[in-house]
Design brief:
Length: about 280
């Protein structure tokens, strides 16, 4: 069986490829990427695959049995991009598509949700066998900013006391590889999230413990948080998006206690303290 991974040079895609290569029952793996030069270190065959160049899609999928469609990074353009991939997969005779969607996509209040719902509907209409991995929040969405929090002596946000059931990219990559390699796990939608939910106050406490000084969490109104992110150098649209996500987290949009991810991968998800430790090790 040949498995192809879109976005294979991305942060999640690289981890999925590594999981597949290291698995005892590994299969042939293909990396589908915009720039094959960036895939040289993956250790697998790379094929050019550009969502915005439809003529590259079906030829790159020749001989592929199972496709992992990792959702694109261009918010607002993912609907047509994903449809193009699905159409090409059907044309190429791909037998099964696994898609990385969003936790509770069909009911989520996050602005990301509509494009995921659109893609899930396109998959259903395609007639190709499908499995949906509804990934919750990545812990790295927050730990990626810890170096700045240490520098400025405060962790800022707008999530209030909302609980966030995040997991690391490594956890979600393990889940994707598990499903790709085990046919008996296919054909359903998985709601995936971390075992351990936390507030941003909890995150600040874990950070404080790790660095040996008090780094408080400072909660801000949504608009003030967005303005602070712009002042720190983020593009306005990204700052508004992050502030929106925090505001929805305050309402419970990022909380889940199903523990389906840990059951799927056969181990607990990465604890918050370990995720903080890893972030500081790599980012400071």
């Amino acid at each position: 069986m040949t498995i192809a991974i879109t976005g294979a040079t991305g942060q999640l895609g690289r981890l999925v490829v590594a999981n597949l290569r290291n698995a005892e029952n590994s299969e042939d793996v293909l990396a589908l990427v915009r720039d094959t030069g960036k895939a040289a270190d993956l250790g697998v065959e790379a094929r050019r695959f550009d969502y915005d160049a439809p003529e590259t899609l079906a030829p790159a999928l020749e001989g592929v049995d199972t496709l992992l469609l990792i959702s694109g990074s261009e918010v607002g353009r993912r609907g047509p991009q994903h449809r193009a991939v699905i159409d090409a997969a059907k044309t190429a005779g791909v037998e099964h598509i696994v898609y990385t969607s969003l936790l509770r996509a069909d009911t989520s209040t996050l602005g990301l949700a509509p494009e995921h719902v659109e893609t899930e509907e396109a998959l259903a209409a395609s007639g190709v066998a499908r499995t949906i991995l509804r990934n919750g929040w990545y812990t790295e969405n927050y730990t990626g900013g810890l170096a700045s929090a240490v520098e400025h002596k405060a962790l800022i946000g707008a999530a209030q006391d909302g609980r966030i059931s995040a997991a690391t990219r490594a956890d979600y990559a393990a889940a994707a590889a598990t499903v790709l390699l085990n046919p008996e796990l296919r054909g359903r939608a998985y709601e995936l999230s971390g075992d351990e939910s936390f507030t941003l106050t909890d995150l600040a406490a874990a950070l404080s413990k790790e660095v040996g000084e008090t780094i408080p969490y400072v909660d801000m109104p949504k608009d003030d948080y967005s303005a602070a992110l712009v002042k720190a150098g983020l593009p306005e649209d990204l700052a508004e998006f992050l502030a929106h996500c925090d505001a929805e987290a305050a309402k419970g949009a990022l909380f889940d206690e199903g523990n389906e991810l840990s059951r799927l991968i056969g181990r607990p998800t990465t604890p918050l303290a370990e995720a903080v430790r890893q972030a500081l090790r790599w980012g400071l």
